[in-house]
Amino acid sequence: MAENACYTLLTSLPHIDSLFNSRITPISRFQLDRRLSMLDMADQERLVMIENLLHWDHLADDVNESALIRLAEKARDQLDSQTLRELVDWRLDMRTIVAALRRKHLGEAAPTTAKWSYGTRYEYIRSHWSSPTLGLGKAFPWISKVAECLRTGNCVELEKTLLQAVWDQLNRLATRHQFDFEAVVIYVLRWNLVARWTSYDTGKAQLRFRKLIDKSLGEFRDQLPVSN
Question: I need a surface site. Which of 11, 159, 166, 167 has the fewest CB within 10 A?
Fold first, then answer.
């Protein structure tokens, strides 16, 4: 997409300056999609692919791991932007880390399968399973707080911690980009986070929290001790 077209698109969009202080999204999804139609077809397809891969609900709920891995590999092959590749890797690493923390919370041993999730860190995680932060506390400083939220069952704080971590990462990447395709992607992903938070339902979150803990058992379900 030409730089002047990106400039026109981005300057037409309302500023997103807050995550948790927002009560509604700054623009409806219908209006956002209308503005995004300014992208050429190739960039529209790339944006859809990235959203499908990184959308919060898609990553947090039931997902076919094999399909996710295939989509992630396809996305990385098609992205010539180092920033977007970095973003894909970081977000999917986050997903793998949180899944690992849930398994640790349940007292499970390190996974033994060769490829139990997509990400650049899962081999490292397996070899640092005994560490409270999986040996990744410096690279991902939010890990300790996530582990504490899992321990206490505080699903609201867990959600806020993860959303804030993604928001902060997008802000860091945004410093490199202002009026290019990467800036458009970052805007849309920020919009998704605000949409996620402004539609947050505590009751549903509690149910989802229990389902995710249960799902985290995965291949280890049959290894759980049976209560007498």
Answer: 11
Q: If you count them, how many residues does the chain have? A: 228
The number of C-alpha atoms within 13 Å of 38 and in the hemisphere containing its C-beta is 19
**32 and 169 Cβ atoms separated by less than 8 Å:** no
What does pLDDT average to over the chain?
84
Look at the block and give the residue holding tokens 């505590």: 202
- Residue 178 token pair: 């202002």
Degrees (nearest 5) of the Cα angle 221, 225, 227? 120
Q: Comparing C-alpha atoms, which of 36, 43, 34, 29 is closest to residue 10?
A: 36
**CA trace torsion 215, 216, 219, 223 (10° rounding):** -100
* Residue 189 to residue 170: CA distance in whole angstroms: 8
The type of residue at 138 is K
23-50 confidence digits (pLDDT tens): 899 999 999 999 999 999 999 999 999 9
Distance in angstroms (rounded) separating the CA atoms of residues 121 and 140: 11
Name the token pair of 163: 């959303």
Residue type, 35: R
* Closest to 105 (Cα-Cα) out of 140, 129, 135, 127: 129
Give CA–CA dist 88/119, Å, rounded: 9
Rounded CA-CA distance 68/72 in Å is 6
Identify residue 143 by its one-letter amino acid code: I
